[in-house]
Amino acid sequence: MRVPLSWLREYVDLPAGETGRDVQAKLVAAGLEVESVEQLGAGLTGPLVVGKVLTIEELTGFKKPIRFCTVDVGQANGTGEPQEIVCGARNFTEGDKVVVALPGAVLPGDFRIAERKTYGKVSRGMICSGDELGMGDDGTHGIIVLPPEYEVGTDATELLELYDEVLDIAVTPDRGYCLSMRGVARETAIAYGLPLRDPALLDVPPPNGYGYLVKVSDPTGCDRFTARTVTGLDPEARSPIWLQRRLQKAGMRPISLAVDVTNYVMLELGQPLHAYDRSRLDGPIGVRRALPGEKLTTLDGTQRVLDAEDLVITDNSGPIGLAGVMGGADTEIADATVDPETGAARGTTDVVIEAAHFDPVVVARTARRHKLSSEASRRFERGVDPQAASAAAQRTVDLLVLLAGGTAEAGVTEVVTPSGPRTIALRADHPDKVAGVDYGRETVVRRLQEVGCDVYGQDELVVTVPSWRPDLTDPNDLAEEVIRLEGYENLPSTLPQPPSGRGLTESQRLRRRVGRALAGAGFVETPTYPFMGEGVLDQLGLAADDPARRTVRLVNPLSDEEPCLRTTLLPGLLGALRRNHGRGTHDLALFETGLVFLAGERPGTAVRLPVDRRPTDEEIAALDAALPAQPRHAAAVLSGAREVSGWWGGGRPAQWADAVEAARAVAREAGAELSVRQGRYGPWHPGRCAALYVVVDGAEELIGHAGELHPRVVKALGLPERTSAMELDLDRLERAGGGAVRAPRISTFPVATQDVALVVDQHVPAAEVEAALRAGAGELLESVRLFDVFSGEQIGEGKKSLAYALRFRAADRTLTVEEASAARDAAVVTAAERTGALLRGA
Questions:
Q1: pLDDT digits over 321-379, tens only?
Q2: Cβ-contact 357, 367 below 8 angstroms
Q3: C-alpha to C-alpha distance for 765 and 310, rounded to whole angstroms
């Protein structure tokens, strides 16, 4: 919302020396987001005056049309003689009043005006356009042509209100009333402790049976509709300069008098309005839901197919507008034209004014459905004061009568769905408890009354909420109003005092250990958004019955392309990898730990937890029962070089084994024994996919996969070749680890190392051989490590050699050679029994 300071002063008597920066500081302290203060007219100095074009001489022989003009500027040039000016614009004629910058003037951008010879003539000044004066978009993009009533030589800086300050306020969704001068003026008056001249306090005639007929068929979608009629408008009447300038400063383009007036009143009071050409209306105005398949051409010239949930304005011909969003082209106010035969002006002379109140949710959904956001829909979505409709209609009527010579018809139509005032019970000391400050009852009552509330009672207050504050719904909202008006900066800063013996939970410690371990291994943590589209699951190659396809769809997603909560961390991580690779970073190792959301049959309904006490275990359990399962996962992705080459030697590319090792690193931090087997699953290459298992509560469970992604997935997602990934369930891994990681026991006795090379079939996984060696070696085995894989003619076709280093150690003695050899032989025997392994060379 752009708020000109000069306009704001009409409603609040600010101190004479108060600047836009001063007002900004006050409003920011009151909780409004004032993003900037624009200085209009900065760098502009006169003389800048009104001139009358006397003669125009067309200069020829140049690449573009040039005109040599004489302009009467009165005594502003000190001589009273016509001013000679060369100008290239063509949207003015002899006799027009224009804005002239005389020599010595400086225009925005440090453009200095001086006498100069150009196109064979001496130009003594400049005829100005709105852009050159920094006035913004006036819809003409040419020389400013003023109404004829302004005197020659008049100071144009005051006439055009070129010097001003404009506050740019980012209005949050709960402060819809600040999308109006009335709302901002109210906040300003409170901040300065000054009275407010409310522009909505108008004498409004009561409704009667003579107004334009209106039929509301959907009182839920439209609970108030006011219609007024003005006849006899001058079709040639133009918006006065003051009205155009206020619209421009507020960021809107002047269009025509009737439209400008409705926009002006919307900015002033916050009530969107619409003006219909009465000659184009066919019968009574109606409000109803659209019929499936109905079509409407809106004011932007687009034909739209309506949805059954759309609320529309109709007449006998059908829909003539999207309620609260945009009007239809069929009843648009017609621009003034001249009859070529009679010379008489033609255009809209009779208008019907609509001031209605529509349901915010209905308007928001319609605007989103049709991708049609408008100034009206922005206000209705955030909440419009329903009690202001009649005043807004009256204000519009008064301005049209004043500026266009119209006549207000006596008929006043009001269709209202009865509703009572909204009240909230509030203990007088509730804001004190919320803020930790002793405000006292008098302060609480005074601040709530300043907001517009009616307050009754002593210790137990009954607060009637004003109609323009739909965001005030419970005691905490009222407490917030008191706190912000008393000043957030006045809240004491107190550090919480945690009881001794508390700290991070074991789950939090695990997440930190995992993060440190992966970061130490060269991975970079990359938090991503928890949203995804269902199409990415097809790109990942997941089966139709895969549990990851049971997604939780958001009712109001941030993006229509990602309407679901993620069921896997891979889409976000792979998207981050793709973006970084596309921007020139090719050696990537990224990881993330975060929640995934798995839909399922979970009974219960979400409950609203209390804020004045800790929720009970039952309340927390009831809330959790209504939510989807949210396990925490850990995932990592890799591409490019895992070890870069340099003077120290050659590097190597990242491969599937690095993804498996990342999973092992996570498991080590959890204190869990990770079992790795060959697997087949969705995104991974069937020959380079490891299934990750752990033992949870005595039963082996699959907790994730790791390896190289399938080439089809790489191509579908636009990833680098040979991209690898890992994902596992961190919660189940934590249960498998049994809690805190115990420090390793360091033995004082030496280790005995035995190497063994086994020949197995090519299809036998090395992990199975390793598991067999562990089982056979017994408790003396400290570790086993695969250090070589070999295949060739010496081994035999379809065979491979796996070389392992076995480390043996006893806790209470030094092992003899015989003991270590016996343990090794037992391990080989078990491997032979389970996997068919043969000792190489035997």
A1: 999 999 998 888 876 655 555 555 567 889 999 999 999 999 999 999 999 999 999 99
A2: no
A3: 61
pTM of the predicted model as reported, rounded to 2 decimal places: 0.68
Cα–Cα distance, 728 to 706 (Å, whole number): 8
CB environment 140-179: b (16+ within 10 A), e (fewer): eeebbebeeeeebbbebbebbbbebbbbebebeeebbbbb
Q: Rounded to the nearest 5°, which phi and psi values hold at 257?
A: -60, -50
CA distance 755 to 784: 10
CA angle 240, 242, 244 (to 5 degrees): 70
**What is the number of other CB atoms lying within 10 angstroms of the CB of residue 667?**
24
Residues 569-600 as b/e (b if ≥16 CB within 10 A, e otherwise) read bbbbbbbbbbebbeeeeebbbbbbbbbbbbbe
Reading the block at residue 702, the tokens are 């699959």
Return mean pLDDT, the chain: 90
Half-sphere exposure of 326 (CA within 13 A, CB side): 21
Contact 806, 787 (CB under 8 A): no
Side chain identity at residue 157, one-letter code: T
Reading the block at residue 478, the tokens are 């009222």
Q: From CA 636, how far away is CA 591, in angstroms rounded? A: 4
Q: What is the pLDDT of residues 54-98, one digit of tens each?
A: 999 888 888 888 889 999 988 888 888 899 999 988 888 889 999
Task: Show Cβ contacts of residue 22 under 8 Å, excluding neighbours closer than 6 positions.
Answer: none
- Residue 6: how many CB atoms within 10 A of its CB? 16
pLDDT at residue number 339 = 57
Q: Quick one: pLDDT at residue 763?
A: 86
Q: What is the pLDDT of residues 500-516, one digit of tens each?
A: 777 888 889 999 999 99
* Domains in the chain with CATH codes: 2-41+165-192 (3.30.56.10), 48-162 (2.40.50.140), 214-416 (3.50.40.10), 423-488 (3.30.56.10), 506-596+631-737 (3.30.930.10), 752-839 (3.30.70.380)
The CB density around residue 335, as the number of other CB atoms within 10 Å, is: 11
DSSP state of 598: B
Nearest to 537 by CA among 577, 576, 564, 557: 564
C-alpha–C-alpha distance, residues 487 and 30, integer Å: 7
Q: Give the separation between CA 809 and CA 750, rounded to whole angstroms.
A: 7
CB atoms within 10 A of CB 404: 22
- Cβ proximity of 727 and 679 under 8 Å: no
Average pLDDT over residues 650-679: 91
Q: What is the pLDDT of residues 729-769, one digit of tens each?
A: 999 999 988 766 677 777 889 999 999 999 999 888 888 89
CA distance 738 to 358: 57
The encoded tokens of residue 624 equal: 């959790």
Name residues whose C-beta falls within 8 Å of residue 510's C-beta, 6 or more positions apart in sequence: 669, 670, 730, 734, 737
Give 183: exposed, middle or buried? Use CB within 10 Å, 0-12, 13-18, 19+: buried
Yes or no: say if 166 and 181 are a contact pair by the CB < 8 Å rule.
no
175 closest CA partner among 453, 385, 489: 385
**CB-based contacts of 680, cutoff 8 Å, min separation 6:** 686, 689
DSSP 8-state code for residue 207: P
Q: What CA–CA distance (Å, rounded) separates 382 from 367?
A: 13
Say if residue 138's pLDDT is above 70.
Answer: no
Q: How far is CA 546 from CA 103, 242, 454, 538, 690, in A?
A: 78, 65, 57, 11, 18
- Tell me which residue of 383, 298, 322, 393 sits closest to 354, measured CA to CA: 393
- Cα distance between residue 341 and residue 343, in whole Å: 6
Which has the higher per-residue pLDDT, 142 or 832?
832
